[in-house]
Task: inverse folding
């Protein structure tokens, strides 16, 4: 799902402002804990009058921000199948553009028009959970079908609040033919990456494609590095900074991330800020550029363009040895709204996502990184298979296993990343101090 890890150019501070004074609401009597169970553990759906098998049809709404048409089509097919299997229940997808998603969700929740299912990663919506808007899924039998590793990203204070559809991560996509023609091996260290970049530049090839006309690709530059080795060494970094216990300047690994990012950004690709993400992607495919720093959402686009066999992937070199750490976390998750009037019926959608059948339906075309490594590799895109190989043989870190920035902290950090990319001077220490000052201002204001 496009721009989901970078996800995130929106300001969640609006949501925090709305829910900051709310107390946690109690689950309705029809909640998951009181749902009648069938022999296989799934919930029996009831109509609005509370009777089973009645004539009145109920509607379960799924609020999402899937950007790719293939993803929307897959969701529609899944909902059609669920309607066929569950007479009396209609599943309605409400797709919202990502740029407006949080604002519209906030409005719906405030106006008492909450959807039944909300697409989103629990740790990005921890404020909604604190305010009692998201129902815990702990104890649901279908969670046994989801890997414990992927559920770590869905868990807050010991409770599971979402079921993921796939994994998400960022790294470097590369043109295989360009690498081969120029005799360049996949770099394992930052120094090797810079040497390869210089070789491409000398050959008249842009080392990296930059689509900074869209704001979010600039965030990938830091995050593809940060979410691996640095957070593996400092798993509580975001929590410690947000609480005021520490600041970014206290983490030498973070400074190294920013310096490496500055080094990579020193290789320009022409009109960086006049080029959008689609044009940058095309530069990589046609060999005008050798590499593109981005995330898993690109894979579906490469497949649609018939280029997924021409493009490879490797982890951004970010460690102090030749084993870079790839940051991977659960993504594309769906949560149950605590204000839903049809929780038992809504759970049928989440339950289906956890089944092998649902996972296979979701990953049509093999574009998604599976939550489980026990998958038929023949169904995966070659790019996805390379990522799975890193999971099996390399080093990965679940960057959402611990707390992450939320609200104004998150939006400020992301804006800072874009500003850093746009500043050709990129004074590392100056920018880290600037970031720490901005974080302190949020803490002082109490937002």
Result:
């Amino acid at each position: 799902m496009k721009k989901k890890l970078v996800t995130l150019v929106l300001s969640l501070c609006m949501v925090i402002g709305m829910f900051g004074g709310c107390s946690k609401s109690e689950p309705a009597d029809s909640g998951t804990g009181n749902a009648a169970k069938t022999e296989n553990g799934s919930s029996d759906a009831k109509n609005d009058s509370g009777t089973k098998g009645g004539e009145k049809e109920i509607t379960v709404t799924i609020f999402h921000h899937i950007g790719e048409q293939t993803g929307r089509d897959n969701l529609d097919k899944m909902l059609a199948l669920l309607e066929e299997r569950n007479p009396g229940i209609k599943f309605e997808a409400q797709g919202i553009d990502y740029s407006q998603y949080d604002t519209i969700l906030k409005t719906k929740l405030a106006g008492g028009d909450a959807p039944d299912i909300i697409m989103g990663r629990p740790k990005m919506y921890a404020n909604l959970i604190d305010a009692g808007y998201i129902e815990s899924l702990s104890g649901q039998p279908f969670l046994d079908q989801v890997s414990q590793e992927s559920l770590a990203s869905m868990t807050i204070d010991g409770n599971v609040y979402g079921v993921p559809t796939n994994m998400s991560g960022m790294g470097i996509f590369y043109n295989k033919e360009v690498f081969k023609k120029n005799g360049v091996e996949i770099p394992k260290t930052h120094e090797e990456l810079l040497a390869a970049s210089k070789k491409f530049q000398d050959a008249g090839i842009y080392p990296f494609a930059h689509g900074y006309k869209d704001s979010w690709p600039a965030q990938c530059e830091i995050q593809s590095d940060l979410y691996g080795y640095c957070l593996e060494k400092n798993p509580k970094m975001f929590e410690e900074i947000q609480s005021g216990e520490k600041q970014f300047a206290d983490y030498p690994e973070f400074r190294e991330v920013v310096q490496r990012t500055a080094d990579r950004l020193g290789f320009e690709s022409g009109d960086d800020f006049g080029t959008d993400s689609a044009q940058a992607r095309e530069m990589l495919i046609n060999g005008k550029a050798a590499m593109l720093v981005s995330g898993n959402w690109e894979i579906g686009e490469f497949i649609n363009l018939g280029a997924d066999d021409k493009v490879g992937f490797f982890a951004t070199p970010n460690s102090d040895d030749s084993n870079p750490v790839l940051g991977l976390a659960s993504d594309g998750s769906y949560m149950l709204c605590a204000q839903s009037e049809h929780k038992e019926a809504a759970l049928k959608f989440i339950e289906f996502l956890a089944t092998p059948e649902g996972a296979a339906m979701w990953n049509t075309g093999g574009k998604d990184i599976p939550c489980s490594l026990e998958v038929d590799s023949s169904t995966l895109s070659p790019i996805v298979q390379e990522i799975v190989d890193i999971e099996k043989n390399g080093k990965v870190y679940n960057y959402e296993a611990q707390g992450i920035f939320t609200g104004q902290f998150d939006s400020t950090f992301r804006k800072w990343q874009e500003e850093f990319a746009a500043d050709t001077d990129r004074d590392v220490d100056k920018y880290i101090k600037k970031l720490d000052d901005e974080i302190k201002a949020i803490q002082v204001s109490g937002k």
Observations:
- Confidence is low (pLDDT under 50) at residues 1-53.
- The first strand starts at residue 58 and ends at 64.
- The CA atoms of residues 266 and 424 lie 8 Å apart.
- The domain at 13-165+332-372 is CATH 3.40.190.10 (D-Maltodextrin-Binding Protein; domain 2).
